[in-house]
Design a protein that fits this description.
Layout: H1 2-23, H2 29-51, H3 60-78, H4 91-114
């Protein structure tokens, strides 16, 4: 049960932060759309697998994706501090682009490995 619920809790926290950053104008909306889209598709695959009695744990790329996403969000937030050492730099933008890139890559990889579960009949 934890293998299904833990990634879901991580996603909810991450997606909430992304939506807030877009609302504040700190990140472009397209990055949030890419990340939210990927997370929705992967969650759909996991739910379909769970309905068939298969639990899909996060793979290494998914774990690295989460680390990069959290680091990118953290950098964007730290840049907003009035004493941030790299305030005004492009570190947050670069980090968010890296997060979007690894998100797309890990999503494509996950779909290639597990997407066929959506095509299999129940049973």
């Amino acid at each position: 049960m934890g293998k299904l619920l833990d990634p879901l809790a991580d996603k909810l926290l991450l997606l909430t932060a992304l939506i807030m950053l877009v609302q504040l104008g700190l990140i472009p909306a397209w990055i949030a759309v890419v990340i939210i889209g990927r997370e929705s598709v992967i969650t759909g695959i996991r739910v379909a697998a769970a309905a068939r009695g298969v639990v899909l744990a996060a793979d290494t790329y998914g774990k690295w994706k989460m680390v990069v996403q959290v680091a990118a969000i953290s950098i964007v937030l730290v840049q907003q501090l009035p004493v941030a050492a790299f305030a005004g730099s492009s570190a947050g933008s670069f980090a968010m682009l890296a997060a979007a890139g690894i998100t797309v890559y890990s999503g494509i990889r996950y779909i290639a490995l597990h997407g066929s579960l959506l095509l299999r009949p129940n049973g």
